[in-house]
Amino acid sequence: MNKTAHYAAAFNVLGICYLFPPDDDSNRMAMRLFTLPGFAQQWPCEVDSTLCMQLSRTAAEGAEVLKSAWQSLFVGPGTLPAPPWGSVYLDAEGLLQGDSTLALSAFLKQERLKL
Q1: What contacts 58, CB < 8 A, 6 or more positions away?
Q2: For a surface tag, which of 13, 47, 69, 92 has the fewest beta carbons within 10 Å of its beta carbon?
Q3: Which residues contact 26 (CB under 8 A, 6 or more apart)?
Q4: Residue 6: which residues within 8 A CB-CB, separation 6 or more?
């Protein structure tokens, strides 16, 4: 594989971790990769040793702990799908789907609108 393909594969792994909760079947292989002792040597770019230990320790935590952390970071309050207007810069709590998403959802429901 050429260098570009290695980076594409790495971005796919990171994308899976963003899109799917840690306990999702789609994410199983990515989570397993981070628990391997030598995963940093397989990664296309240099990984700081402290970051490597943190990733491995975090990936080894229980599924419920990881799912809760993923939900808090990427989903925010409720279980709404990620809207294109969601932004960590728009919400005071710094979530992709925080107060602005909930306010928009309430407005759409009140006006009986569906996107």
Answers
A1: 34, 66
A2: 92
A3: 16, 19, 20
A4: 44
Q: In whole angstroms, give the CA distance from residue 72 to residue 58.
A: 15
Query: By C-alpha distance, which of 67, 65, 66, 104 is closest to 82?
Result: 104
Condensed to tens digits (0 to 9), the pLDDT of residues 35-46 reads 888 888 888 777
pLDDT category at 10 given cuts 50, 70, 90 is: confident
Q: Do residues 85 and 72 make contact, with C-beta atoms less than 8 angstroms apart? A: no
Pair of tokens at residue 49? 């040793």
Is the pTM higher than 0.85? no
Contact 14, 44 (CB under 8 A): no
Within 10 angstroms of residue 105's Cβ, the number of other Cβ atoms is: 15
